[in-house]
Structure to design on (147 residues):
């Protein structure tokens, strides 16, 4: 398990934009990761009137799990951890309008393909053990030029 403090060395997000509480499991050979986020009013996307986080934010939860996976992969291979960007979100299905306050969501993602620094992942989010969101994300890792 990788807790939040250790995650800070693996992904660029900080403060309220950090949308992972912990990584539960990862498998570099299986190209997958499983993480959790504790929904609370500290989330930058928290809606105080609805006392929840809108489900459309799910793509960012998935993207941060992907970022953690790539950060872990870089760390394991003694490579620098680089920033990345979401290039596209497709096949997104939302079965709920909001994530419940004080609930824990599980974020799962699996790499489907990659070319150089561009990756395609399938992600899903579970709430109370039931899949409530799924999406496919294409992301790009920004590589620094060698000097």
């Amino acid at each position: 398990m990788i807790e939040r403090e250790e995650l800070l060395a693996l992904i660029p997000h900080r403060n309220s934009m950090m949308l992972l509480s912990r990584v539960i499991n990862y498998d570099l050979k299986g190209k997958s990761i499983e993480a959790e986020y504790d929904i609370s009013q500290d989330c930058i996307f928290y809606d105080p009137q609805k006392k929840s986080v809108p489900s459309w934010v799910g793509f960012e939860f998935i993207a941060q799990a992907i970022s953690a996976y790539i950060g872990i992969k870089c760390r394991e291979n003694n490579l620098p951890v680089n920033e990345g960007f979401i290039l596209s979100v497709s096949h997104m299905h939302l079965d709920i309008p909001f994530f419940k306050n004080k609930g824990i969501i599980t974020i799962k993602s699996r790499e489907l393909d990659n070319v150089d620094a561009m990756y395609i992942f399938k992600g899903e989010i579970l709430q109370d053990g039931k899949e409530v969101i799924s999406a496919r994300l294409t992301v790009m890792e920004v590589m620094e030029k060698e000097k």
In short: The chain has a mean pLDDT of 92. Residues 32 and 110 are 4 Å apart (CA to CA).
